[in-house]
Amino acid sequence: MQGYERHADGGIVVKDSPPPNVGPGGVIRTLEDLLLWDRNFCHPKVGGREVLNQLLTPGQFNDGTVSREAPGLIVDRYRGLAIVEHSGRGRGFTSQILRFPEQKFTVIVLCNLHRGPADQRCFDVADIYLESEFTRPKSVEVAKPSNSEVDLLASESQTLTGVYVVDSDVLEIALAGGALTATLNGTTRRTLRPLGEDQFHVLGRAWQLVFQRDGISRVESVSLEIEGNPEILTFTLPQTLSDSEANEFAGQYYNEELDVLYHISMEEERLRIRLNDIAKYEVFPKPLITMSSDEFSDGSKTSIRFHRADDSAVSGFRPDDPRVTNIRFVKQG
Prior knowledge:
Mean pLDDT: 82
Largest sheet: 8 strands, antiparallel
Strand content: 35-45%
Radius of gyration: 22 Å
Order of helices and strands: EEHHEEEEEHHHEEEEEEEEHEEEEEEEE
Structural class: alpha+beta
CATH architecture of the largest domain: 3-Layer(aba) Sandwich
Number of strands: 23
Distance between the termini: 46 Å
Number of helices: 6
Low-confidence stretches: 140-153
């Protein structure tokens, strides 16, 4: 089967990707494989109950806050019910498995479209089959806007688009097919449905976005509220670099172990990393987003941390993501 992706002009093209990496990624699975995985949680044959309990135990931060993430799984709630989920993505394919353990109900969706709506389709199916089981209504049903509000939101959609950041997370708001969409850390793009002025429900998630404006027009931040989570994340506009600051990072960076040379330059007011000046094989296809003075993001889970020598001059950088860490690139010249 061939994987596809959306082209910049809105069309669908074949996803041109290198062979999958072996290790933490590049695992190819079938519907039958995922069915066996799901059944193992109900009738443990591999790992035993002790291992499965560890997989389902969320992590805890130093301040006592419980994370949504367990070892390799997301443990959360949707419309009042406990869920366990995870997604997969690569080479023009997207997958999602969504389990409701207490209801013994699982939805699996496989999609041959890069950043396809696999997760949204899982929740759509669950909304139909478990409607009588949910203890909370879909948040999208509240306060349906009047036509005038919808028209107003549509006319102002462009003012909401852009990139917003908080800590190491990146939220991208864009227009696609005439509708606003949200992408968190480079994952699946989800459609936004208006609830009122500057308020939106994220389809396929129990999330609500509320935009805050500086005065009448300029949006300066957006808050993310997650059902069942008292914490509200507030994303703000990223920092901008002056020409002198950008010049500090510009140059060539080399890693001897990988024999790879990266070129960093300023393009359209943002830093851009290119691999050996060969555009077809871009590792970082988008300009970098400024997270702090020496830390940048590619819009997903990869961070670029620059290092400085004793004289405070930039001496190199290190890309870090969930799969790669401590690969040091040294600035040349």
